[in-house]
Prior knowledge:
By secondary structure, the chain is an alpha+beta fold.
Amino acid sequence: xxxxxxxxxxxxKLNENKEVDILIIGGGLTGLLTAYNLKNKNxxxxxxxxxxxxxxxNTTAKITYxxxxxxxxxxxxxGYEDAKLYLKSQLESIDxxxxxxxxxxxxxxxxxxxxxxxxxxxxxxxxxxxxxEFLIENEIDIKETTLPIETKNYLxxxxxxxxxxxxxxxxxxxxKILMKNNIKVYEETPIFDIKKENNHxxxxxxxxxxxxxxxxxxxxxxYFIYPLLIPIKSYLEKSYIIVSKVKEYKNFSxxxxxxxxxxxRYYKEGNNIYQISLGSSHNTAFKQNDEKCFNxxxxxxxxxxxxxxxxxxNMDIITPDYIPFIGEIKENMLIGCGYNTxxxxxxxxxxxxxxxxxNNKPNKYKNLTNPKRFNLSNLIKLPYYITSGxxxxxxxxxxxxxxxxKHVITKRxxxxxxxxxxxxxxxxxxxxxxxxxxxxxxxxxxxxKTWDCPCHSSRFDIDGNCLKGPSNKDIKL
Length: 477
Ligand SMILES: Cc1cc2nc3c(=O)[nH]c(=O)nc-3n(C[C@H](O)[C@H](O)[C@H](O)COP(=O)(O)OP(=O)(O)OC[C@H]3O[C@@H](n4cnc5c(N)ncnc54)[C@H](O)[C@@H]3O)c2cc1C
């Protein structure tokens, strides 16, 4: 499910042992763009499903630096200079995407689309004014205006030099260039284990081993805990998207600064025009009734049932200081993740920064995004991460049969917790109701028919196939 249609292509699975200088794990925007930037090296990509079908598949794909109130938040947590540097990184990344699309002639519906930001509560007016002041001080041409969609708003600003695109068409454009450069992309090839041996890593896939001097983790949320300790350095935010058919195409994207989050854009495909509405964003640890969250979005955007064509949810990593984790996490192991729901720009930033680190070249963003950083924002937010982790784990264990379940029961069988989904034809689908990542019990998502982990957002289909990490294992019985 998702507005961006999957693009059919020949799938190459790894079918032999391999030795490379650089192995990129993960075929989303981060993985493919990093390979694009390193294309003269001896590299390959492995992807557990198919390229682009991770978090990237369900993004709203706004390419913008107007990111809620991110600059004033970074300013208060990391200082004004770091907020300035982050803004620079976003502007540069937008230019980079534009340059790649133009240079490589990638047909991906890349459209100049003004971005709007608005205060949807009175309390937010003061905060939004501060954000606009920061942007004006940093020579951004931001203007006060009115919002081109009907919803509660008290103050609205707009910038012009931002874009939207179709991320899957973009990814496939990059994929074709990698193919031309003879860079191998192995799909349906999950990585289960990484071991350090002498001066290289030994990586285990389904049937084969890969030997690599350097590893780039582009897996979104890494499946292992050490050395990044990501569960106590971030949380996962889940958002709900409803796509509806509309009559008029409006070329803008918008996001509110206060709760409830109200974010939307439009997309044209043939004669069809779609409004992509996003809302009800929350830490995955809380609010586990997905149907209720979708209903909140429908009500907020005043969407009629007859116009709705699809509903889906998606999750991204929120870091304590709103700056991504990009860089080296241990010797010859690098990562790009933690994009705070702004992954179109930040995956581009990751791809050029990781390239420079590998090539031993200076890069002005290296300290800003250092994934090993531990600063005041980590300390301030640590209790929240620990509490929400404990909350999601214990509630998942204590309340397994949720009051809103319509098609599902859970029970114990031979000492294991089992989840049973009965489909409309009466067929029974049984899975292990335990996430292989850290052992939380799963919550059934009645709308998308998936088993979702409330702790770190792994997802499984009704037959137990792992759709999304950090789990790298299925939950089949
Ligand atoms: C609701 C929502 C809306 C968003 N909207 C926007 C937006 O409008 N603008 C914006 O800039 N950003 C947006 N984002 C953020 C953006 O979509 C993400 O940050 C970005 O897509 C992440 O890309 P990625 O390549 O890092 O991760 P992914 O696309 O998830 O790629 C990671 C890949 O790694 C693979 N993988 C994982 N584990 C393994 C393994 N063990 N072995 C092999 N492969 C593995 C996965 O299958 C996956 O394909 C949004 C995010 C959300 C949640």
